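Quick question: what would this complex look like in 3D?
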Amino acid sequence: MARTGPKSTAVRVLVWLGVIIAVLTAVLAGGNLAGQASWAPKLALDLEGGTQMILAPRVEGDSAISEDQLNQAVSIIRQRVDGSGVSEAEISTQSGRNVVVSLPGTPSPETRQLIQASADMNFRPVILAGDGAPVPEASRTPEDQLPVPTAEPTNGSDTNWVTADIYKEFEALDCANPAQDQRESSDPTKPLVTCEPATETTPAIKYILGPVEVEGGSIVTSNFQLSQGAQGAVTNDWAVTIQFNDEGTQKFKTVTERLNQFYVAAGGETGSDPKSQFAIVLDDQVISAPRAQASITDGRPQITGSFTEQSAKALSDQLRFGALPISFEIQSDQQISATLGGEQLRMGLLAGIIGLLLVVVYSLFQYRMLGLVTIASLVVAGVLTYLAIAILGWTENYRLSLAGVAGLIVAIGQTADSFIVYFERIRDELREGRGLVSAVENGWKRAKRTVLASKAVNLLAALVLYFVAVGNVRGFAFTLGLTALADLIVVFMFTHPTLQLLARTKFFGEGHRFSGLDPARLGAVPLYRGAGRIRTPDVKPDVVRPKNTGAAAEAGRRMTIAERRLAEAQDKGSSSAAGQAQSSGTAKSTGAAKEGK
Amino acid sequence: MPSFATFGNELYSGKRSYNFVGGKKLWFLIAAIAVALSILIPVAKGGFNLGIEFRGGSEFTVSNAANTDPSIGETVVQDVVSGSIPRVANVAGTTMRIQTDRLNDDETLQIKDGLATAYGVTENEVTSTFVGPTWGQDVTKQALIGLVVFVLLAAVLMALYFRTWKMSLSAIAGMAVTMFITAGIYSISDFEVTPSAIIGFLTVLSYSLYDTVVVFDKIRENTADITKSTRRTFAEEVNLAVNQTLVRSINTMMVAILPVGAILFIGAGLLGAGTLRDLSLALFVGILVGTAATIFIAAPMYAWLRQNEVELRTQAQRVTDRRDAATTESQEPSIG
């Protein structure tokens, strides 16, 4: 390896690291200028306070809601909140009937909506559709011509569901002015008269719907994407896809087979039989009533038409995070202060800083000037983590709780371990008799494997817990992953290149007494010091003797220039080690040490 | 004074060697007793002292408080129930919200009185209700599922990386010992179990496996060509690897434990009870035990699991033969 190779690579890597930090800073500065991000990380509920919402269930009369329903509601709301970022919200019950949601900061209207939305979702077949405006009094169907059921309805699309009362309700319904806010949830076994509200592009439509045929509970998951046209090309229309469970798949298949017959009978695409439509009903309002152009047998329908990206996302979120077993209304919505005062954070940070100073002292004591590399690396890791936290606070609503702050301080231990592993490997290589430059390269090759393997464990823990767990544990996983990544970036892009460069300086290269890489102190040449101390007898002799005697026997053959000088110096009884070891012996000592190993 | 560097040199060369692998029977016995105690003591104490986040508790609401300083509420609660960690917050202007662990009727009344006096309001302006856990069953369930998946995947990852399932097994055994003992000591401390403490346990879990992987990687390196060597037996080679990484283990432990210790002893001293005390205790104990478990449990267990493999037995025999031959020929064995 040419000597200029690693050196220029090292410089290049350091420049790249500078670029990464500059880009992150620029991103944050951009967000700041746009007024969306802030330089300081966002703080969680315990440190910053936030908004406390008390959700009261809407129940008929005195009927109480069961504990199961309440717990289920809490769990669904938690998933919804988690879905909107890593903010560590607190969700609990109060007095056995209310749900209390505390969110840090001021939640956006979307988040508020998501929490409250009951998303009572189901699918009903359309029996009759009409214009959204109420039929004028004068032209309404006279009493004697109102439809009268002639038989028991046989399926959901049967017109026998439509009674005179239902028809009157249908004609009177005004979609521009719906008076349904206060209405209780509809009966799933009865027909429903309701509207599809107007959007920017489509007018309101009102429907008479048959009873519920597929419940929202059979939805496994839901996504949204740009839909694909007939040729498989991506179109500009947003689509929401649903995946049903086995039961839902069966039901959906039965219904769409029936509806598809109406579709075909009415002349396919040119036809307009409302009975071929299947209404998706959310909180008793029709979101969309697509025609059954095919019978869906695989339980994976795709809903298209008049979605914007936002409305598609909102619908798929509501579908994915499940339907609440009961609907809630926000009873109170109040600001809440931090539960931990600024005092706590200050004391915690103070303790953390004292701890860090102890780490600095210990590193300097252990690794002398090399300890400075550790400290510089930790500073770089700190800068990276800080930038990442501030940016993620902006994009992912990632917030730091006091426990999170402590976690970050503690992460220093694990970050520093990468350097310790690396430094110890370098020292091991020096002990084998290598020069510093080659010790750094060889030590790195070995340390790299160890660092990658061990960080993989941390990253795995972070990934698994992030995707599986909810609530606080998810926040923890996020922090763990973040610090592990920052650590890998720093050790690869800062610590190693810095050492490559330092190894070529006089101070470190010649193994100055205070460099922490002084070969003499590291016992690069085995020295006789009389008998070793007493150790466990059965292993000691075997381990010890071959090493010392072997080294002695081979010493003449193996000695490098550096070692020979060192040995001479030691014979003279000189205790100063400066200038004894020279990195210029690199090439030879590398080869020799390899043989010896 | 022998310096730490010299200590490291001697460990590296084998001049100084601690018999971690050979003493396995003793370590395993100690670990077994410690684990048994860690299970028995919490059982004898009637389980863990779970905090409000897990069990729910009482919530007091003080309306129109004259002073909205949270520390007033904390003092009132702690005067009635010593050692509890109430969560006090100011809601919408002049309302105070005070949450405590589950209380009996007597304590509830006393606290209600105390709060009314302390915040300068009438008794009617203090209401109390029951609040459910914020850390519900669903959080615990998902966290446990996550843990099981993680441990299984980590086992597969280690088995693939080290090319032997025996390392996975040993590492996970070491981790399990760490978790049991940490939980046991936490229970003895009688600190309340809070979400922070659970986060601490999770950190310890990942630290424990992490630490083991670092040491095992050195063992893998040292034992890569074991069948071709007659210098040391497998167990000796494992022991040497542990000794060679001992300085790393001590340094890493120190660097990890210093900030935690500072938070535990200085922070908790300044702050009294609080979020940081539980987290840092879990971490402090966990890091110490985790480092020890790698050295005393995981590594010896790995040597023990593999020593009866046919190849390694033959190799051990060859080592013994060579040593015997060497001693009969001369007092100074040499390596060839």
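Answer marked as accepted. The longest strand of chain A covers residues 121-131.
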